[in-house]
Amino acid sequence: MTTPQDLLIVALNVPSSRDVGQGDLSLALAGAELLDLLDAGVLTLDDDLLVPGAERTTGDRLLDEAGASLVRQPPYETIEDWLWRRGRGLAQAYVGVLEEETPTGGTRRHWLRRRSDPAATADSPSRRRANDRWAAHEPVLVGLADALGIETPSTTGSDEATNQATVTILGAVNDALTELEAVRQRRRIENEAFDNVWRAP
């Protein structure tokens, strides 16, 4: 199983300080893919550029799709550009994989099943693995969850990610999520201003 799959399961089962929207989760999942590809030697970082390595498979369909989509000719893609490009609709793709593994026979009423829904709570090898990583305070998983506002377990300094490439990717995910929220706030303000114009006598 992969870090994106583990992150999705954590997002389904652990309370969050705010609503985790589809866009937020998609950006975080794209960051999780980068961290797995980095760990597998599929890419390296040159500052904030994604430098592809030897083409290889990971055994996971979505992760292999991510690796195949890396820009292989200079100028290479930045982490930020990757997050926005790869992240488009990514949460839907991972939810689909989870539902294939844990079919419920029901109709999905929302893009993301909540903790009370069968796909979120059904026991499976992937869910057990995600729970084990979460209970172990695995730094990468905790860092991604923290970026989404998910209540993370109490950790010590030794649990924090120290690899510079990992820190760089986690920082880029945080920046992208902050930018997404800023866009939402601007839209809310614009919509409220538009509504006020129509309400004015």
UniProtKB/TrEMBL annotation:
Mode of membrane association: Peripheral membrane protein
Q: Where is this region: Disordered?
A: 113-133
Respond yes or no to whether keyword Membrane is given for this record: yes
Q: Can you name a GO cellular component term? A: endomembrane system
Q: Which UniProt keywords apply?
A: Golgi apparatus, Lipid-binding, Membrane
Q: Which cellular compartments is it found in? A: Golgi apparatus membrane
By its UniProt entry, which Gene3D superfamilies does this protein fall under?
yeast vps74-n-term truncation variant domain like
UniProt-listed InterPro entries: GPP34-like, GPP34-like_sf
* Domain of life of the source: Bacteria
Indicate whether Membrane appears among the record's keywords.
yes
Q: Name one GO molecular function term.
A: phosphatidylinositol-4-phosphate binding
- State what protein this is by name: GPP34 family phosphoprotein
- The species is Streptomyces spinoverrucosus
Q: What is the lineage of its organism?
A: Bacteria, Bacillati, Actinomycetota, Actinomycetes, Kitasatosporales
